[in-house]
Amino acid sequence: MFSTSVVCLYQVQFYRNGDRFFAGLTYAVSRDRYRTLDSLMSDLTDSPLGDKAVLPKGVRHIFTLDGGVKITGIDQLVDGMCYVCASTPVYRKVRHDVLWPVAL
After folding, report:
1. What was the pLDDT predicted at 102?
2. How far apart are CA 61 and CA 1, in angstroms?
3. pLDDT digits (tens, 9 = 90+) for 34-69
4. Residues 8, 30 contacting (CB under 8 angstroms)
5. Domains of the chain by start residue, with CATH
6. CB 61 within 8 A of CB 88
7. What span, in angstroms and rounded, lies between the C-alpha atoms of 63 and 43?
8. Is the pLDDT of residue 103 over 50?
9. N- to C-terminal Cα distance for the chain?
10. Mean pLDDT, residues 9-28 taken together
11. Nearest Cα residue to 88 out of 48, 47, 39, 55
12. What 8-state DSSP symbol labels residue 91?
């Protein structure tokens, strides 16, 4: 007999807290790879998202795009949704869904 297991794979978009110029980072999240939220936040800190100029303490908090809910567990992530990563527990309201034109 073959053993089959279902792999839950989510594709989510992460933004930096307060950085309206960051276009976002699409990330594939599976429960096999990330068993805890801390392991996901550690990987996000090491990714291009974890720029020390914007997130000096790395990714320590994850919020929904509107800042209404702080994500406390990996099971709260929803496929196709957008989230905001922050170093501090304070959410800064910025329109992440719009890229602002940059003057040259």
Report:
1. 45
2. 43
3. 889 999 999 999 988 888 888 889 999 999 988 889
4. yes
5. 9-86 (3.10.20.230)
6. yes
7. 16
8. no
9. 63
10. 88
11. 55
12. P
